[in-house]
Amino acid sequence: MKKDSIRNFCIIAHIDHGKSTLADRFIQKAHVVSEREFKDQMLDSMDIERERGITIKSTAITIPYTAKDGKEYILNLVDTPGHVDFSYEVSRAISSCEGALLLIDATQGVEAQTLSNMYMALEHNLEILPVINKIDLPAADVHNVKRQIDHDLGLDSSAAISVSAKLGTGIDELLEAIVVRIPPPAGGGEHPLEALIFDSHYDPYRGVIVHIRIFEGILETGQEIMFFSNKAVYRVEEAGIFRMGLQKASRLEAGEVGYIIAGIKTVSDIRVGDTITLAENPCTAALPGFRDVKPVVFSSIYPVDANDYNELSQAMEKLKLNDASLVYEKDSSAALGFGFRCGFLGLLHLEVVQERLEREFGLSLVLTAPSVQYKIRLRGGAGLIVDNPSGYPEQEKIECSEEPYIRAAIISPALYLGPIISLCMDKRGVQKDLRYLDEKRVELIYEMPLAEVLFDFYDKLKSISRGYASFDYELTGYKDSDLVRLDILLNGKPVDALSQLVFRKNAASRARIICKRLRDEIPRHQFKIPIQGAIGSQIIARETISPVRKDVLAKCYGGDITRKRKLLEKQKEGKKRMKTVGNVELPQSAFLAVLKTDED
Known about the structure:
The protein is of the alpha+beta class. It is built from 14 helices and 31 strands. The radius of gyration is 29 Å and the shape is globular.
């Protein structure tokens, strides 16, 4: 295929603006699958994506297209996620393309992730083609959205194409605009091979399947390739392109997107962002890869059954191939045994990883309460970074502590301005800017601690704005904070897996919520169980689970009261002895209860 007949582009947008639906229409137009095999969200292959109605993984597919002038084109399309937690997926998809379709909902207009995704595409010098979707809805306001494209995005609204991805309206015009306005790939076949790994996944029968974009040279079956980072050499067993599966091809040329299988069994050899070249004629320098991902939320994952630790270890390694933004290291807990301390890009990312491990690998897991990364300076002048409450030093050794702050951008109808400001103030937010984008929409810029956004901020924002407010954030740095470690004691013994690092003023209310949750979740035992929240040696909250009692007086029908007293005293002694040696059984639901908010 000639290079000028190839178009590599991705679809980027705010969450729920119709990216996967538009990809479905492209697939139908190209007759890549028969009508009998077609189903909605064709590129969302995971069950969890279908159930939640969101895209989690960027997915590539090659579509043939015949233009109006009769010329044949190959369109390499990448469907991307919209949620802020998966922006790393979007950045990798963008790096393998020359153009981007920026999708905007005709009823919602320009939202927070629309802006951040557009800036990401501009950083990579992509040709941006604005597309107004959902024009079939009664609430669609195309004229107003075009005004927002001019005013908010700084793009030419006259170049925007109006479509309805649901009904297929305007799809032909959009396909024609793609081949006319998105440039063909650069590079040629005469230079040494340069291919960028932008994704990979694990096949239990064939090993690692590597997703690549070729920038220079030609890749053929049977060639010996080398990974630039570790100089590992493999022979290409199979190469091909993405249709609704993997389709073999004898060679891949500069400008094409495809896959290779080379019998790679060592998962650690593959690094997303690495360069592939030929072993006998390597290129001189590696392609610029991707920025190292910086996790913002940390939690420990443990198997419910300690014997499943090896299975969890293998599952984490295979999942890391498919999710390059997952960061993990070994961890251990007195209550839960051996596990892994993991870094995530947000709470949704954490939920998705947990669900994938449970579904795809059949594991039963326990997760500890999420935390962020804090910077601690000790009295001697030494500093350390803490993301796990178990690593938090004694309070008297700490000179000061800092927590990460974010710059949050909220775009909302002006109608909900009051409740949104109140919510941000409750979360220790400081307003930095407020500007009206037009007579109905307002943009708020707040500086607030990342830890306050973790649990329920997004849900509350959606509730008070009836789903209309959009939210995006970026890390700005660290600021001084008054931190304490909140320990949870069961029967007088601290449970390390339930400890949390919290802001001092929020500690008492948080401790009361956790104690109430645990009281409802932990089954009654033969002895009384006190549940306490403590900061150091100071108890700040308490709940009690009353014991299960046996009626030892059932067989006494009267007679001397001393006999009854003797039986009750004997029972009391037994309960006291049981309390000192008895262990409290903690169900998995108790750990999940700690993650819930006060309004759940």
